[in-house]
Structure formats: C-alpha cells, structure tokens
Amino acid sequence: MTSLDIALLYLLAAVLSVVACRQFRLPPMLGYLVAGILIGPNALALAQDSAGIRYLAEFGVVFLMFVIGLEFSLPKLRAMKQHVFGLGLAQVVLTIGLATAASLLLVLMLPGWWQVSWQIAVALGGILSMSSTAIVIKLVAERLELESEHGKRVVGVLLFQDLAVVPLLVLIPALAADPEDLLPALGLALLKAALLLGLLLTGGQTIMRWWLTLVARQKSDELFMLNLLLITLGLSWLTEHAGLSLALGAFVAGMLISETEFKHQVETDIRPFHDVLLGLFFITIGMMLDWRLVLERWPLVLVMLTLSLAFKLAMITGLARAFGASMGVSLRVGLYLAQAGEFGLVLLTLAGQHNLVPPQLFNPILAAMVLSMLATPFMILYTNTIVAKLVASDWLMQAVQMTRIASQAMNVDQHVIICGYGRCGQNLARLLEGEGIPYIALDLDPDRVRQAKAAGHSVVFGDAARLQALKAAGLHRASAVVVTYVDTASALKVLHHTHEQAVNLPVVVRTVSDVDLEKLRAAGATEVVPEAIEASLMLASHALALMGVPMRRVARIVQDQRDARYQLLRGYFHGADDDSADEIEQERLSTVTLPTTGCAVGKTLASLALETLGVRVASLRRASGLPTTFDEATVLDGGDTLVLSGPAPALALAEDRLLSR
Fold first, then answer.
1. CA 326 to CA 305: how far, in whole Å?
2. What mean pLDDT is predicted for residues 575-585?
C-alpha cells in the first residue's frame, strides 16, 4: 500500500469509529480501539503495523501529555489536595505495591504458570494503577456529577494518576536495565529528570512568557501555531535525547505555558493535533491486539479482567471509606475507577518495547484492559442501581437529602422551580422576588448553595434531572419549571420527568443555539430560549440606537422579531393590574382547555373561524401535555389546551365559542 492508501484507510477508520460512538454516546477512544482491531494485521489485515505509523502515533501521547501539563495548576491542586494527594496518592502507591506483591506471590505458588521478575511485577503494578481519564471525565460531566461528593473524589484520583505517569515514564525504561546496572540506571534517570526539570522550571516560565509575548506581537496565527509545535516537539526531543521520554518533555512544555496568559489560546490551538494524533495512537494500540491469541487464551483474559476489576473496585472503595466518604460515595468512586486507562495503554506499550512484558502475556493483558474500558460506560450507567442494592445506608442518605428539599418547598405553592442556580438562575430569582412570586432553586454546586442560603435565597442542593428531587421541590404544586443551565441531556430528563408527573405544567428551557430546539420542543418544552438569538437581538438594538434610530422604533423592531420567534411573547397573559382603559384593546394571551363534550371537540381550527373574531391560536397543547404543531386542518380533542392571542373583547367571544356546549 502507498502512503496515501494508508492515510486514507486510517482516516476512514477514524471517521466511521467516531460516528458510531457518537450515535451510541460512547467515548471516541473506544471506537478508535475497535477500528484498530478490525483493520489490523490480526483481523481484516487492511493495514500493517509499521514503525513509521507507530512513531507518528507516539505524537498523540506527546500532545496528550502536553494538554495534561497545560491543565496542571498549583491553585487547583491546593484546592483539591485532600483528594489528589490523599486518596489519589494512596490509590497509586497501594495499587503498585499490592499488585507487585501479588505477582511475586503467584510466582511462588504457581511457578509453572506465572513467571515474572520483580521488575516486570512493578511495571504491571504501574499499568494497573491507571484509570481512564478520557472516558470517566466525559461520563461524569455528562451526568452532571463533577461537583458531587463522589465526582470530586474521582476527579482528584484521576488528576494524581495523570501526574504519576511522569515518574512512571522514567521508571519503566530504567527497570529494563540489567540487574547489576538497575540501581545506577534508575539513579541516572532520576538525576537527569531532576536536573532537566529543575533547569526548565526554574527560569523556564520567565523565558516562555517573554518568548510567547514576542511571537504574539507579530499578530500571525500561523506563526503562533508553528511556535507551539516547535516548543512542544522541541522539548520532547530534548528529553528523549537526555535518555528520558518524548511525553515528559511535552508535559514540561504544557506546565511552562500553563502559568502564562496564553494558556487558553494555546489550549484551543493545540486541540486538533491532540485529538487527531491521539486517535491514531489508539488505532495502533488496537492493531497490536491479536484476537486469535485472545480466543485461544480466553480463560486467562477473563481471569485478568475479573481480578483487575474486583481488585481495583475493592481497594478504591476501601480507601475512599478510609478517607471519610460514606459507603455509598465510596462504592461509586470504586465503580467509576475500576477500569484500565489510556495511560495504562501507554505504559504497557512502553513496557513491551523494553521487554518488561512477556510476549505471551502482552495480548491477554491488552485484551483485558480494552474490555474493561469498553465495560466502563455500562458500569457507570448502572452505578445507582448497584449502590442502592448493596448499600442500604445510601438510600437513607438520599432520603435525608430529599427531606431537606421537601422541607424547603413545604410552605410554598404555585411557585417556580429553577433548575440550576448559576448567574442566569440567580437573575431569574431576583426578578421573581421583585414580583412577589415564590420559587425554589436546585443546584449541584455545594459552595454556591451554601453561600446563597446564607444570603437568604430559596436554594437547595439537588439534581434537577432526578425525579425524586423534582417531586421533593413540589413539582405537583408548582406553576412553572425553568431550566437555566445549558445541558440538553439533563434538560431532556427534566422535561421527561415533568410531563410524566405534571402533564400541563409549563417548562421553559435555555439553550445555546437552535440546534436542539426541535428536540426540546418535541420533548415537551413550552418555550426554548436560544442565547444566540437573544444576543443577536441585543446587538441589533444597540447598533440601531447608535445609528440614530429612535428608541421607540428600536424597541418595536426588537419586539416584532421576538414575536416572530417566540409564540408565547405575542401578547401577554391577563392579570389583575391589566384593566386600565389603555390596555383593554392591546393584544393579550388567554388559555382555554376544551371540555370533553364541548361543541368544539372533533372540529378543525378552520371550521371554528376564530380569526374572524380577531383571535389567533398561539400554541396548542394536547391532553397528553405535549405541545404539537398545528394548522387549519388540525382536529381538536377534549382536554386540548389552546393559547389564544387577541384583544380582550375578542378573546371573550372566542372562549364562548370554544366552551359552548
């Protein structure tokens, strides 16, 4: 195959694998691994594992370590020091120590079946200590659990694992030295690493800031990108020629840049290289897996998979419990971190290159690691079910949390449930307070909840995407639900629970753009408010005002645009303070629910001729509670709710026509 053939094959495999994973909401990394297995020399044999491709794929690890270094922040570490340097440090050290001891014990007990040296045992312990940052962080973020008790512990452990990769990258090549040269080799490697890191970190940040500022002043995106590649690959080259590893230099480069004001720009620019090359790395990992050998030795693969998952689950759960977490939280942390990780694959590849993993064990170990990563999304999906069955006290803790929410909502009625108490939710709460409308807000940030409660706000800690939390917040007594955070998956859960329990309760959802608008509407959202449209309207109003257009006309133009976009803003609902003579003829909104035996039931909208009265139908909600599209030919059913728009006298006539027997 030519170079172009190979490049096209890898691109095709990458695209198809990512598309498949997106369809099933799985991390792309799993798709890359499966794609590598399929196109590799041990399956369809569409591509051969060449040294050139492997070397190119190594740059995926280089950019991964660069991004890890870029996210390395001393203030962040200090804020999470108990979870990072307490639970995280204990997890890595104990995993390596216990795995090494277990391997050596197996050598004594089963010498004919398990033959490894202590160097190999240490390397295997380091590989086992890693969990998948890419998979777990994505799933935790999607489940809105980053600020939960188990979420903070999971993030802390993963952060320390990422840091622990750096010394392991130095340790594993040193372990491959001859026994008599091992200590000198290890000492030399550590000395080189200490000298190089000390030299780079002592004055490196000052030089890096000066150099990046000099390049940025040229105002050339092309030059800035070339400079980033030069810094990353240059420091990687330096550490490799110092007898260390490419990835170590990239990590240092990221650390140096992380303390400069260019961090976020660099993160944005480097992301495409990181994602593409890391995908290539995982494809090459998949190509190494010989599935025929795995099938021949499937009992060994199954034993390795089961023992590794059980060992890490038990140990991490026990450690989290020892560090003060409840049993339910501890078990969740163990379930989230029991799998192998992408850095484990990196270390396994490095150990294989230095003959620290016996060839007959390489494929079974690789297969067990890949299978554990494939199982992770399902383990996390059923975590709540597993914990509820195994930990009785967890149910009690959740009951206590629901009781707190219920006690807060006990004295309010016809209130608004605010899902999310960020800046948007807090602004909404202030407006509701100004109008004397009660509300209760649910938020998952404990610090924000604590500060807001201290200030007298009606906010409680709870996940709005959970039915129990919505019920405790008084869902059946509420007058409306507003989702103020931008997360379509969670908003869909809120909509599902709301319309399952309170069919006619209106729900307003915030979103970034129109991309998910129809999906949210189909799920039952009364109105969807895209930020992009609101931002464009405000920009247009300021621009028109600056151009000299009269403010009254600017307000009318913006209102006309809103009327065209939001059906519910075409008019207003009548209130007790809307009876002035000036407002009688203004357009307002009225809600009419059809009786089951009314004369309008079974008729089309056209036959009712409401427009002849000066009234139009703004929206139609079926008896099931879901809004629906409609036209003149739509047939009405009993229990349907129509939102009518028009002047007060016309609305009265229209209501009489719809409700007459």
1. 27
2. 49
Residue carrying structure tokens 């309008």: 600
pLDDT above 60 for 519: yes
Long-range pairs of 519-525 with CB within 8 A, sequence gap ≥ 24: 519/488, 519/492, 520/488, 520/491, 520/492, 520/495, 521/627, 522/626, 523/492, 523/495, 523/496, 523/499, 524/495, 524/496, 524/498, 524/499, 524/625, 524/626, 524/627, 525/491, 525/495, 525/627
C-alpha 158/C-alpha 316 separation (Å) is 12
Looking at mean pLDDT, say which of 32-36, 237-241, 432-436 comes out highest: 432-436
573: left (phi over 0), alpha (psi -120 to 50) or beta: beta
Class of domain 3-389: mainly alpha
Q: Give the orientation angle of helix 392-409 with respect to helix 327-337, to 10 degrees.
A: 110
- For helices 149-175 and 182-216, the axis angle rounded to 10 degrees is 120
* pLDDT at position 347: 87
Return d(Cα 420, Cα 464) in angstroms, integer. 8
Contact yes or no for 195/243 (Cβ under 8 A): no
Q: Which two tokens stand for residue 525?
A: 């959202």
Best-predicted range by mean pLDDT among 273-277, 438-442, 588-592? 438-442
Edge-first strand order for the sheet with 588-593 is: 588-593, 641-646, 616-621, 627-628
Kindly compute the dihedral angle of the four CA atoms of residues 342, 347, 352, 358, in this order, to the nearest 10 degrees: -90
Domain 395-525 class in CATH: alpha beta
The answer to whether residues 470 and 494 touch, using CB atoms and an 8 Å cutoff, is: yes
Alpha carbon of residue 280 to chain centroid = 23
What burial class does residue 457 get, using C-beta atoms within 10 Å of its C-beta: 0-12 exposed, 13-18 middle, 19+ buried?
Answer: buried
Domain boundaries, the chain: 3-389, 395-525, 586-659
- Same topology for domains 3-389 and 395-525, yes or no? no
313 band by pLDDT with thresholds 50, 70 and 90: very high
How does pLDDT run across 328-339, given as a tens digit for each residue? 889 999 999 998
Q: Which structure tokens are listed for 473?
A: 């917040």
Query: Which range has the worst mean pLDDT, 197-201, 294-298, 372-376?
Result: 197-201
Q: Would residue 614 be called left, alpha or beta, if left means φ above 0 and alpha means ψ between -120 and 50 degrees?
A: left
Q: What pLDDT shows up at residue 400?
A: 58
Query: Could you give the 3-state DSSP secondary structure of residue 465?
Result: coil
- Residue 573's Cβ-side half-sphere holds a number of Cα atoms within 13 Å equal to 6
Q: What is the average pLDDT across 448-467?
A: 81
Average pLDDT, the chain: 80
In this predicted structure, what is the pLDDT of residue 314? 94
- 308 in Cβ contact with 368 (< 8 Å): yes
What CATH number labels 586-659?
3.30.70.1450
Residue 283, both tokens = 């494809």
HSE-up of residue 72 (Cα within 13 Å, Cβ side) = 21
* Identity of residue 406: A
Measured between alpha carbons, how far is 108 from 417 in angstroms, rounded to an integer?
63
Place of tokens 């690959």: 233
Place of tokens 């408010």: 529
Lowest mean pLDDT of 83-87, 191-195, 377-381, name the range. Answer: 191-195
Instruction: Summarize pLDDT for 53-80 with one digit per residue, the tens.
Output: 666 667 777 777 787 777 666 666 666 7
Contact, 77 vs 84, CB < 8 A? yes
**What is the secondary structure of 138-193 as a DSSP string?**
HHHHHTT-TTSHHHHHHHHHHHHHHHHHHHHHHHHHHHTS-GGGHHHHHHHHHHHH
47, with CB counted inside 10 A (0-12, 13-18, 19+), is buried
